[in-house]
C-alpha cells in the first residue's frame, strides 16, 4: 500500500509522487519495489500514465492524513493477505531487496511489523511491512480512542503496534530516503545514477 497524498508544502505544492527520479516517477519506483505484491494499492491520485495496474482509493475526508489514508487502503486489502507493506510514495530509492529485508524481519520477529531505523535512531514509519491483522486492529483501536482518524499521526498509530527496528547495512543510499524538498530530489537523482 502506497500513500500518495499530502500537500508537498516544502515543494511548492507539487504532485510529489509524479516527480521523476532517473527517468521514472517516484510512485512508479516505489511500486516497482513491491512488484510482486497483490494487490498493489495507491491511496491518493493515480496518474493516468502509471505504467502498472493498481487499485486506488482516497482517505475520507480528503486530506485527512496518513492514518486515515492507511485505513482507506486497508479497506481494499483482502482478509487473506498476511503482510502489508505501508510505504510513502516519495521513496525513490526503495528496492525490492529492502522490502524483502523488512518482510523477513516481520515474519521472524515476535513483533507486529518491521520498519527501518535511520542513523539518527528515528523510525521510518512509512517504510515498513506489517502483519495485516495487527495493522487493522491498531487502526480500529485508534479510531475508537479518538472518535475519528482524521488528523491522527502515524506516531499515534505506532503506539498500538509492536515494531522491530531494522538497520540498513548495505552499501549505497538508504532505502527510506524521502524527497520532501527540491534538494532531496536532486540528491536522489544523483544517487539513482
UniProtKB/TrEMBL annotation:
Q: Name one Pfam family in it.
A: NTP_transf_3
Locations of Basic and acidic residues compositional bias? 184-193
GO molecular function terms noted in the UniProt entry: nucleotidyltransferase activity
Listed Gene3D superfamilies: Spore Coat Polysaccharide Biosynthesis Protein SpsA, Chain A
What keywords are assigned to this protein? Transferase
Where is region (Disordered) located?
A: 173-193
Stored InterPro entries: MobA-like_NTP_Trfase, Nucleotide-diphossugar_trans
Superkingdom of this entry's organism? Bacteria
Q: In what residue span(s) does the MobA-like NTP transferase domain sit?
A: 2-148
PANTHER family per UniProt = MOLYBDENUM COFACTOR GUANYLYLTRANSFERASE
List the protein's name.
Molybdopterin-guanine dinucleotide biosynthesis protein A
Give the species this sequence originates from. Paractinoplanes brasiliensis
Lineage summary: Bacteria, Bacillati, Actinomycetota, Actinomycetes, Micromonosporales
Amino acid at each position: 500500500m502506497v500513500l500518495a497524498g499530502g500537500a508537498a508544502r516544502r515543494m511548492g505544492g507539487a504532485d510529489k509522487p509524479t516527480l521523476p527520479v532517473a527517468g521514472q516517477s517516484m510512485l512508479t519506483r516505489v511500486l516497482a519495489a513491491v512488484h510482486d505484491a497483490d494487490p498493489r494499492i495507491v491511496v491518493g491520485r493515480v496518474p493516468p500514465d502509471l505504467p502498472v495496474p493498481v487499485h486506488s482509493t482516497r482517505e475520507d475526508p480528503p486530506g485527512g492524513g496518513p492514518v486515515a489514508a492507511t485505513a482507506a487502503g486497508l479497506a481494499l486489502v483482502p482478509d487473506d493477505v498476511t503482510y502489508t507493506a505501508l510505504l510513502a510514495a516519495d521513496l525513490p530509492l526503495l528496492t525490492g531487496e529492502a522490502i524483502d529485508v523488512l518482510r523477513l524481519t516481520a515474519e521472524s520477529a515476535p513483533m507486529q511489523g518491521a520498519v527501518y531505523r535511520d542513523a539518527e535512531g528515528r523510525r521510518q514509519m512509512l517504510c515498513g511491512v506489517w502483519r495485516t491483522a495487527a495493522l487493522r486492529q491498531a487502526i480500529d483501536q485508534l479510531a475508537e480512542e479518538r472518535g475519528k482518524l482524521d488528523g491522527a499521526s502515524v506516531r499515534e498509530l505506532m503506539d498500538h503496534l509492536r515494531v522491530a527496528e531494522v538497520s540498513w547495512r548495505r552499501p549505497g543510499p538508504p532505502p527510506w530516503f524521502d524527497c520532501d524538498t527540491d534538494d532531496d530530489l536532486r540528491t536522489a537523482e544523483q544517487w539513482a545514477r
